[in-house]
UniProtKB/TrEMBL annotation:
Name this protein carries in UniProt: Ligase-associated DNA damage response DEXH box helicase
Organism: Fulvivirga sediminis
Keywords, alphabetical: ATP-binding, DNA damage, DNA repair, DNA-binding, Helicase, Hydrolase, Isomerase, Ligase, Nucleotide-binding
Lineage: Bacteria, Pseudomonadati, Bacteroidota, Cytophagia, Cytophagales
Domain Helicase C-terminal positions: 252-411
Domain Helicase ATP-binding per the UniProt entry, residue ranges: 30-216
Length: 820
DNA sequence: GACCTGCTGCGGTCTG
């Protein structure tokens, strides 16, 4: 293209002024954008990915204006940059401003998030900036404004940054819907995404662009920057020092401290908030000299404290930070020298993301230390290393048919200018999420927002939308305001604020934890000893104390099972163990004595074998199986088998599982051989049998809480006077029960069941696992004593029943049992 | 003093 020949050098010249040289992928992005493509840039953080799209957006403007710059306010909104995290907005804004000034333009670059003042919002609405950085939620809020098409009419580009973070969530669905609207009202719109590497890159583009654009001109630009990641496991002096079960890993603390001391800056990633608290505390106990140069960071700590930590890390005031995935993304701070991962990261992408926090410069080596919390976890370290080497990364599965988000979106459009249902139906059908929606479903949704559907017709509250001159509209101001307040798809868990008596906010804690404490008790939170004073109006009041804490809070969070990519690699590594000869992974060599014990007591399965262990102990009869498919699949598989076995003979089985396998336990003999003969592991009738074996109604009921909230059935309360979570819970359950009893075809109800199958039971993955096992040779052993594979599962089961001390006793006795 | 599983993210008017 001739004009590009004139344009690209402008960007190149500016890069040269900065002392930079454009990467190949940046040039490719510039060309693709300027030639009219939509697409996705696949590049790691810290590689100048922002400039790969900021530049062509500006160049296109220069092209249209024949090189001239024009005054602010005349152009309207030209580009929207979506970030999933507010904290990233400032950095993007700085880059954009730098480029704008560098190219001699007088574009205005502005942020629009929940933190933006109402006055600034008004200003922006009247006089839009050319370049707007915002969040998916704020974009929806803009669509809820009267006259939004005028606001967006000059828009040329939407960039979805960190698209891999959004696409696997309902926030991604929200983006798809927002884009479907913008495509119609901005005819010249180009849509681009920026994504880290994921397994399903092509699907990522489809979800972003939807059917219409994906068929047109679209491109994936892959960065040529290769990251070298080195994985080093922290090993104890002897194998005996590493426990067979457990999750905390503090017994390796003395090996971790020197790593921290030898480095200028270290991030220590833990899997849970409570582990971050515990590790921080233990590190201070063991190495008091770290006080003042070490801090902690997780999602329940106040934003103010976290900001301080991020700044201090940036300014090199801090030497180490113990954190959770709260620092996975967020501030794109200067790279740290050292990364430590405590326990299994459960997924390759997460591990690589964290490793990438060190050696930030393109081409630099990233090193990550892996601290195992139990012996078998070391196999995961070897699996991670191999996955990184061969480039096996997890998929992000886009949500399909999330009717709760669609309902919210339709009301959003009704709140602003109202919508023509035929027009919007066509747009919605073009999205990845809803491409299978049919006319009947659509009509159900319309009736739901106008009448509340068949079971809620009697209540005025749910007649939110009216039809006026053929347009679906919200006319009631109260409904409109409530709706604006509840835009978004993130449903928070129940929590209480923790504040000093003086009023300073420290963070949030869950009600059930504080319920166990009495006034005067001391607990450890946000890295300090806090004395619990009282609860007043949903606020936990505390004061600092010198007394030692007797408890560390834990939070009920999401549970992450081992990813299927990790499962594949784990099984591969275990197969490697069965082969003769020295292993290339140091972890596996270290573990060989344990593996030998497994072989001696039972069997060490290779890739063509499936191991089942059957034995009797004082507790009863145990059957253990090891699919290595993550705990969700094992939970479902355990229930499935329990059901099928009890059809052979009436028997009560209790189920326990971890990421490696599951256990069935009974006080009576388990007819396992008979069960295997009747093909108890078949994937036939899987769907029905799961439904029959699990309490799927109860699971769906729990799932429905979020759906009710997102679809606007329950209102979370006005700011400052939040409705108690218990009310939210009970009212959403009420809706569930009503739909369950009177409106079985309610799409939101059906969605709850679908979500249970897809996300909680991972039905598709279970099916694949059963099919794989069907191809394998089944080996049943009858070990005399519990095996290294069995031990952690049995411990996890007992953990739920026994108090901690008793458990410790029991583990000690079991361990003694193991000695030959 | 030991005991400790369970992440992250967002978000407030209209109209003249």
């Amino acid at each position: 293209m001739a004009e590009e020949k004139a344009l690209i050098p402008i960007a190149e010249g500016w890069f040269e002024d900065q002392g930079w040289k454009p990467f190949q992928f940046q040039r490719e992005s510039w060309h693709a954008y300027l030639s009219g493509y939509n697409g996705l840039v696949n590049a790691p953080t810290g590689s100048g990915k922002t400039y790969s799209l900021v530049m062509p957006i500006l160049l296109e403007y220069i092209r249209e204006n024949g090189g001239a710059t024009s005054s602010v306010g005349k152009n309207g909104l030209r580009a929207i940059w979506i970030t999933p995290i507010k904290a990233l907005a400032k950095e993007i804004s700085n880059s954009a401003q730098r480029a704008v000034a560098g190219l001699g333009l007088d574009w205005q670059v502005s942020l629009r998030t929940g933190d933006t003042s109402p006055a600034d919002r008004q200003k922006m609405k009247k006089n839009p900036p050319e370049f707007l950085i915002t969040t998916p939620e704020s974009l929806q809020l803009m669509l809820a404004q009267k006259g939004y098409p005028k606001f967006f009419k000059n828009l040329r580009a939407v960039v979805c940054d960190e698209w891999h973070e959004l696409m696997g969530s309902k926030r991604g669905v929200q983006m798809e819907l927002g884009l479907s609207r913008l495509k119609t009202i901005c005819p010249k719109l180009k849509i681009w995404g920026i994504s880290a590497t994921i397994g399903n890159m092509d699907e990522a583009v489809q979800a972003l662009l939807g059917a219409s654009l994906d068929k047109g001109k679209s491109k994936i630009i892959r960065s040529d920057i290769k990251k070298v990641i080195e994985v080093e496991s922290v090993l104890p002096d002897t194998l005996e020092k590493l426990p067979w079960a457990g999750h905390l890993g503090v017994n390796l603390i003395d090996k971790v401290i020197p790593i921290i001391k030898n480095s200028n800056s270290t991030l220590i990633f833990t899997n849970t908030r409570s582990f971050a608290e515990i590790w921080y505390q233990k590190l201070l106990d063991r190495a008091p000299e770290l006080a003042g140069t070490m801090a902690m960071h997780h999602g329940s700590i106040s934003r103010e404290l976290r900001d301080w930590v991020e700044d201090a890390l940036h300014n090199e005031q801090l030497k180490a930070v113990v954190c959770t995935s709260s620092l996975d993304l967020g501030v794109d701070f200067r790279p740290v020298e050292t990364i430590i991962q405590i326990g299994s990261p459960k997924g390759v992408a997460r591990f690589m993301q964290r490793a990438g926090r060190s050696g930030h410069q393109p081409g630099a080596l990233s090193k990550i230390y892996f601290v195992p919390t139990h012996s078998l976890e070391l196999v995961e370290a070897a699996a991670l290393r191999e996955a990184i080497k061969v480039g096996l990364v997890e998929d992000r599965i886009p949500f399909i048919r999330s009717f709760d988000v669609l309902i919210q979106y339709l009301v959003t459009l009704a709140v602003s200018d109202g919508f023509d249902e035929r027009e919007i139906f066509e747009e919605v059908k073009e999205t990845f999420c809803y491409n299978s929606i049919d006319r009947d479903e659509w009509l159900w949704l319309l009736s739901f927002i106008t009448t509340g559907g068949s079971s809620l017709t009697a209540y005025d509250e749910y007649r939110k939308v009216e039809i006026e001159d053929g347009l679906y509209k919200v006319t009631n101001r109260r409904i409109a305001m409530r709706h604006r307040l509840s835009i978004g798809t993130i449903v928070s868990d129940s929590s209480l604020k923790v504040k000093y008596i003086t009023g300073k906010y420290i963070g949030t804690i869950e009600e059930w934890f504080i319920a166990r404490l009495s006034p005067g008790d001391v607990f450890w939170f946000a890295g300090r000893n806090l004395e619990f004073v009282r609860i007043k109006e949903m606020v936990v009041q505390v004061r600092n104390t010198k007394k030692k804490a007797k408890a560390v809070p834990s939070w009920m969070g999401g549970r992450m099972p081992l990813s299927s990519q990790m499962s594949v690699m784990l099984r591969k590594k275990l197969h490697g163990v069965t082969l003769k000869g020295k292993k290339t992974d140091p972890e596996l060599n270290f573990l060989m004595p344990l593996m030998e014990l497994q072989r001696k007591r039972s069997h060490l399965p290779n890739k063509d074998e499936f191991l089942i262990e059957y034995f009797k102990s004082k507790e009863g009869y145990h059957v253990l199986m090891y699919p290595f498919e993550g705990r969700f699949v094992h939970e479902g598989m355990g229930a499935l088998l329990a059901k099928r076995i009890s059809e052979i003979t009436p028997i009560t089985l209790s189920i326990a599982m971890n990421d490696y396998g599951f256990e069935l336990l009974s006080d009576r003999e388990i007819p396992i051989y008979e069960a295997l003969e009747t093909d108890v592991l078949t994937s036939d009738n899987l769907y029905q049998d799961i439904q029959g074996s699990m309490n799927s109604v109860e699971m769906a009921r729990r799932r429905f809480r979020d759906i009710a909230s997102i679809s606007g059935l329950v209102f979370k309360g006005y700011p400052g006077q939040q409705i108690k979570d218990r009310h939210l819970q009970s009212s959403s359950q009420l809706f569930f029960d009503v739909f369950h009893d009177y409106e079985a075809d309610n799409l939101l109800l059906l969605q709850a069941y679908e979500e249970v199958m897809d996300f909680q039971l991972e039905e598709a993955r279970m099916r694949r696992a059963l099919e794989r096992i069907h191809q394998q040779k089944i080996i049943v052993t009858e070990p005399e004593k519990p095996t290294p594979f069995a031990f952690p599962i049995m411990v996890d089961r007992m953990r739920e029943k026994l108090s901690s001390e008793k458990l410790e006793d029991r583990i000690r006795r079991m361990t003694l049992d193991f000695e030959e």
